[in-house]
From TrEMBL:
Entry GO CC: cytosol
Lineage, top ranks: Eukaryota, Viridiplantae, Streptophyta, Embryophyta, Tracheophyta
Protein name per Swiss-Prot or TrEMBL: Luciferase-like domain-containing protein
GO molecular function terms attached to this record: oxidoreductase activity, acting on paired donors, with incorporation or reduction of molecular oxygen
InterPro entries according to UniProt: Bact_Lucif_Oxidored, Luciferase-like_dom, Luciferase-like_sf
SUPFAM superfamilies (UniProt xref): Bacterial luciferase-like
Gene3D superfamilies registered for this protein in UniProt: Luciferase-like domain
Superkingdom field: Eukaryota
Domain Luciferase-like: 9-259
Length: 339
């Protein structure tokens, strides 16, 4: 059995071929797709977060709206860039979204991806301290967030408050019990996966890895997952971690699928440069269901993960994205033992 979720990048563009012409379109369609996915039997709705781009950015209003419109499906991010975040304000927003959804929030966070602007986090008021780089700043923000989500009081109360306080130091509110164990770190390397295990975060293996050892992407990713689980066991956390991988998978079951993705499958991994370093990207899976079953059965990282995030072409609209999800749940997942 596997948890199967969709991951939306939330693009919009005012072009004739896009069904998301505006930010309003993307936000409303994101909610509608989550509702449709829950009806189909999909397990999760996840959203990317990018700043200064025509993509989804502020996740918590969207997550709260999805949580209010659904009853079963997990809601999450993949991922929030912690360079941009005030950890205490984020803890309040996350607590509210988790309570609205009755504990269904799965919060993916990370150092973030290459940006649209130079040092975009500085416009949000955040800069690395002396001796830090931007990655270390993201980890510092993350450690503060994790500490706050433990729920222990830390703030000295006013002796003459406007409203009565409980005894002792105060924590940020609203607080949602259990959210701390539903934080995921988006790891782009084997080393950062081990850091996530040290900190007691679930692993959200990235859509790319910022290293290349010459082996196929899925093998490198499977090694990353193995190292994460080993480190987790060595540290001895008191709960079992979850692991997700992201894939582009398109079952071709009709003429429309063939027109969109008939030539997309059968390729290989890509190797490129990200932020001046080498990176390996996974391939797209597209084909008839029988062929997909064979190809996906050989993907070692999918086999090692408990959660599969399906990247969806959100600009093709809710109906088509729901069709892609339904085709995978109906024709592919049962044959692989995922359902």
């Amino acid at each position: 059995m596997k948890n199967i979720a969709f991951l939306s990048f939330g693009h919009w563009s005012d072009t004739p071929h896009s069904q998301t012409r505006s930010a309003s379109d993307v936000l409303h369609q994101s909610i509608d797709l989550a509702v449709a996915a829950e009806e189909i039997g999909v397990d999760g709705a996840y959203y990317r977060v990018h700043h200064f781009a025509r993509q989804l950015a502020s996740p918590f209003p969207l997550l709260a709206a999805v949580g209010a419109k659904t009853s079963r499906i997990e809601i999450g991010t993949g991922v929030i860039d912690m360079r941009y975040e005030n950890p205490l304000y984020m803890a309040e927003d996350a607590g509210a979204a988790d309570l609205i959804s009755s504990g269904r929030l799965q919060l993916g966070i990370s150092r973030g991806s290459p940006e649209q602007v130079i040092d975009g986090y500085s416009y949000f008021g955040y800069r690395p301290t002396e001796g830090e780089d931007h990655a270390a700043m993201a980890r510092r923000h993350t450690e503060v967030l994790l500490g706050v989500l433990e729920g222990e009081g830390f703030a000295q109360p006013n002796p003459r408050p406007m409203f009565p306080n409980p005894p002792g130091l105060l924590r940020v509110e609203p607080y949602s019990q259990g959210l701390r164990q539903r934080i995921w770190w988006g790891a782009g390397s084997r080393d950062t996966a081990e850091w996530a295990a040290d900190k007691g975060m679930n692993l959200m293996s990235s859509t790319l890895l910022t290293e290349d050892t010459g082996v196929p992407f899925h093998q490198l990713q499977a090694e990353q997952i193995e190292r994460f689980r080993k480190r987790w066991a060595d540290v001895g956390h008191d709960f079992e971690p979850r692991v997700s991988v992201s894939r582009s998978i398109f079952p071709i079951v009709n003429a429309t699928d063939r027109a969109y993705f008939g030539t997309a499958g059968g390729g290989s991994d890509q190797v490129g440069m990200i932020d001046g370093g080498i990176a390996r990207f996974g391939k797209t899976y597209a084909g008839e269901p029988d062929q997909l079953v064979k190809d996906l059965a050989e993907d070692g990282a999918i086999a090692a993960a408990d959660t599969l995030l399906l990247t969806i072409p959100n600009q093709l609209g809710v109906d088509y994205c729901a069709h892609v999800l339904d085709s995978l749940i109906r024709y592919v997942a049962p044959e692989l033992g995922w359902r």
